[in-house]
Amino acid sequence: MKTLIIYNTASGATKEYADWIGDALKANVVAEKDVDSSMISTYQTLIFGSCVQGGKLKIASWVTSHWKQVKDKKIIVYSVSGADPTETSVMRKYFDESFSKEMQKHMTMFSLHGRISFKNFPMIVRLIVKFVRKVSKNPDVQKFTTEFDDVKKEYIAPIISAAKK
Fold it and tell me: Whole-model pTM?
């Protein structure tokens, strides 16, 4: 099956996963901002990779605006965030906030662990993060204001299996 992977990324993790998936499936990989919607018709399988921002998958607006064009394809969506992918209620909320129940019926969805790196953020954002981390005692705030990298190639195995079915 001819496969296209469309992604957006904040810290590079979603792109890294997209490239690995693309290599494994011999699929074309393109950033959301570079997609020419005329290319969609030539693919049977679409894989959408997205970072999570504000509790929603950033790519959701693109998918929603192109839904008529993509809905009859095999659709796989993976999210990449700082949240633990085994926290299924959190992951479910991300997808529910991003896509209608009707759209979700046409999708196979996965959640992958990502990375948080502040080095490319503007200085003001880094200062705010540092301040919030210092004054907050909330474990969730501590978790999301601490840098980490848990991007691993082996996490893509279920996506590869789903794409090959």
Answer: 0.88
Residues 84 and 141 in one domain: no
Residue 41 shares a structural domain with residue 51:
yes
Two structure tokens written together for 70: 């993509």
pLDDT at 147 over 90: no
Residues paired with residue 51 on neighbouring β-strands, in sequence order: 80
Question: Can you give the CATH number for the domain in which 19 is found?
Answer: 3.40.50.360
CA nearest neighbour of 57 among 16, 13, 111, 102: 111
Residue environment code for 58-79, b if the CB has 16+ CB neighbours within 10 A, otherwise e: bbbebbeeeeeebeebbbbbbb
Of 11, 33, 29, whose CA–CA distance to 20 is shortest?
Answer: 29
Q: What is the total count of domains within the chain?
A: 2
CB hemisphere CA count around 160 (13 angstroms): 15
Tell which residue, 45, 43, 49, 80, has the closest CA to residue 62. 49
Average pLDDT over residues 80-91: 85
Domain that holds residue 140: 116-148
Percent of the chain with pLDDT over 90: 61
Same domain, 123 and 142: yes
What pLDDT does residue 144 have?
67
